[in-house]
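S., here's the first fold you wanted:
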Amino acid sequence: MIQKEIDITNKVGMHARPASLLVEAAHKFRSRIWIEKNGQVANGKNITSLLLLSADKGSRIKIRAEGSDAAEAVQTLVQLVKNKFGEE
């Protein structure tokens, strides 16, 4: 399993648009993907699950993946968060 922690820094946090972008990116990988915030774990390929995390700006999340392309999946999703989901 590969994992990485990162802070949410975009203006609105992981609400509808950012969550949909993350789910879209996650679906490109075969690995199972989870997003965790304060011990609550969400399926990274399910938008409803992600929205229930209520990951506002400043939240610290952990992106985890398990599978043949786990390292690439985590790297891609971390980069998406770092790039503020294309906000700017």
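And the second, which I think is the more interesting of the pair:
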Amino acid sequence: MFSFGRTMGVMRKEFREMVRDWMFVRLALVAPTVVYLLFAYGLVVDVENLPVGILDMDATPASRQLCGELFSTRYFRRRLLASSEQEIIEGIQSGELRLGVIIPPGFQRKLEQGQFSPIQVWIDGMLPSRAQVTRSYISGVLTNYNTRVIARYMERSGVGGMEALGGINAKIRYWYNPALRGSNYLAPGLFMIVMILFPALLASLSVVREKELGSILAVYSSPLTKFEYIIGKTLPHALSSLLNFQFLFLCARILFDVPFRGNLLVLEGVTFIFILYAMSIGFFVSVLVRTQVAAMLTTTVATLLPGFLYSGLIVPLSSMGPEAEAISTLFGATYYVSLCRIIFLRGGNAQIILHNVIPIVGFTVALYALTFMRFKKRVA
């Protein structure tokens, strides 16, 4: 029969061991914030301040205006004003430049005559994703420039400007992330990496350490049930992880200026559920291995690999193909990443939140059930 008193005894013992062991204190409170900041600053998805080399062989007001519009955005900065194509080539080869723009002679004259005036744009394509983003940015700048050039030409021709043509005048508005800041998308998703790795590590090490020290024999010989033992070990580490989440939340809001449009209590609630899910992974690993080294390696592989590859943290799930998208549904990390982003940026509603919380609860119950089945109060 379940005894609340025995469970509280395990909890008090676990709290004392956590405070006494500075390795556990650092692992529980310091390391998660450090890892979060390293990932948040290191996994930069924004493409900004790209170094650009310009070769302006026309040197007219029209070419200078194009250069001015290019560098009026936050995406490009002038690094080189070249005098030959070879300088642009050498800059891209050395990595000093990410983009080269060559404006040929006669650029303004052709525009004034209503003709196409080709320019050359060279993009460093070594990193395909960055090259695609760079191409979309410069295409946007050139589209805006072309629109103004056409409008001026039509006014000079007596047509009356672009308004006389009619047609589509699209006004594009970005919801939830108007500035298209990558940190708004990445910072909330990174909660998952910290909240799955460290609670799982703490859970697995707390049991395996007792196996190595032999102190778990006292548990085997006591009236303590395996349910009381696991629950007593779960709550102290779950509460310390939830406390650590407060620091991560403040980092996202203050350091990375991510807007928060949801309900903080809802976010805390789903995070606590996810922490229990992470700890269920750690406890399940702890009943399978006997050493702390094996526990750390197994837990890290079981949490980080699915977290990075199949959660949609870096690459959207829709871009991964049907097989990978199906695999992603088997991991709680996928749903927690979605929850963090939805609650932070959209606010979310009860239906969407429950749609993502229920699978995490199901995985948690299943893993704890497997842990109780595998945990034997005897020496194997």
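Why I say that: Residues 4-44+182-374 form one domain. The chain has two domains: 4-44+182-374, 50-165.

Talk tomorrow,
H.
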